[in-house]
Specification:
The protein is of the alpha+beta class. Helices cover about 25% and strands about 25% of the residues. The two termini are about 40 Å apart. InterPro entries: CAT-like_dom_sf, Plant_Fungal_Acyltransferase.
Length: about 450
Amino acid sequence: MMSISIKSNSIVIPSEPTPSGLLQLSESDQVAQWTHAPAIHIYKSNNNIPFSFEKMKNALSRALVHFYPLAGRLRWIEGGRLELDCNVMGVQISEAYADAKLDELGDFAPTGVVEDLVPKIDYTTPIEEWPLFLAQLTRFSCGGICVGTAVSHTMADGLSATNFINSWAKLARGCDLEDNEIPFLDRTVLRSSKPLMKLRFDHITYTTKSPLMIGSLDAKEEQKKETSVTLLKLTREQVEGLRNRANNETPYQENGVSTIRPYSRYEAISGHMWRCACKVRRVADHDNQPTRVRILVDIRNRLNPPLPQQYFGNAICATVTSTCLYGDLLSKPLGYSAGKLREAIETVTDEYIMSNLDFIASQKHVGGLRNSFHIRGLGTEAPFLGNPNLSLGSWMNLPVYDTDFGWGEPTYVGPGLLNMDGKSFILPSPLNDGSLIIAFRLQTQHMDSFKKFFYEDLAI
C-alpha cells in the first residue's frame, strides 16, 4: 500500500504588490461549483534536472502577480452568490513524498490512491478560509514527480486553469511571460445586461429536471449504488472510425434538413458513449426510458465580439440535450445521438449566452443552478445527473501537455477525481498521435458490460 507523507505546507503570496478590494464575479462564475477541480500532472524521472521546491514556490509567487485574484478569498453574499475579496491571503503549496514508484499507480485512473496526490480542502470550514489554488508536489522513490493541483471552480474554467498552471511552469523554467500570455481579468464582460432583457429561450438546463429511472420518485437509490472509474483508450484509427460512421450513416436531421458540417470527434465519441450507457443501463422493456446529456460549451469564440483568449474566469455555458428515449438512441444510427449532441451545442449562440446570463441574474437564489456534485459528509447541492443521464466533458483542446516546469513535458495529465455516476472527460493523449483517453465513472454493476460494448461497437 502506497504511503504519502507531507513534508511541508506553505502559503505563497504574489511577489509584488497587487490590486486589493472586491472583484466582481460573472453570472457564469456564480453557477459554477464552489468546490475545486483536482488534476494531476505526472513527470517521469529526469535526473539531469534536480527538483527544487523553493524554485517552484518562487515561480508560483511570480505567477500570482498576474493571476492575483487566485490569492484572494471567496465569501457568501445574498441569494447564494459569491464575491471575491482580493485580500492577498495566498495560495497553498505542499511538498510530499511517496514510498513507491510511479509504475505502481498503473494508468493513473482517478481512484483512491490517485486522489491522495491532489491537495485536500476541508469544506466543513468557512469558505473565507479556503485557498483558491492548492498544489501538492509529490516525489516518488523512482525520481518521478506528480504535480497535483486544485483550482476553485468559481474562479476558473478548464482553459483558464490550464493557462495559469502553464504560466507557473514557464516561470519555473526561468522564462518570462509574453504579452499574449497575460490574463484578462475583467469579469464584467460576462455580466448580465441592465436592465434585464425579456428571456428569449427556455434554458431547460436550469428549468427542467433531469430524467429519473422509470418507476422512481427521486434519485436517492441511484446515488447510493457503488461506482467505479476507468480509463478507456482510443487509437487515432478508432476515433476516425467513429467519426466516419457518424457521418456516413443516416445523419441526424432537423426539420428534414441533413446536418452539413461533419460531426466532430467529441460529438461522435460522446454519441457512442451515450448509446453504450443506454445499452448497459437498460432493464426489461425500458426502451421508453428518458435520458439526456449535460455538456459544457466554451463561449470565448461564440460571443460577438469574441472574448479575449486569455480571459480568466468561467467562459463556459452549461447546456443539455433534449430528452431522448433509450429505444430511439439504440435503434437509430450513431448519427442520431451525435446529432442530438450537435443540436444542444449549436443552441449556444451569442443571443443564447446573453439570455442565459440574464436568466441567472434574474434568480433570487442561484444555489439550485450550480452543477451537481457530492462531497463526502456534506451531501449533494443540486439534482443528481447520473443514471439514466450522463455528463460528458472534454479536455481535448486544452494545452495540458505544455506544462513543462523544467523536467520536460508531462507523461500523463488527467483528473484527480471523478465524483459522480455517468461523469466523464475526454482527454488528449500524451502520445500526441491523435489517440485519446476517456476518464469515466459508472455504477460498478454496469462497468464491465460498458467496456465490452464500448470496444465491440467500435467495429460495427
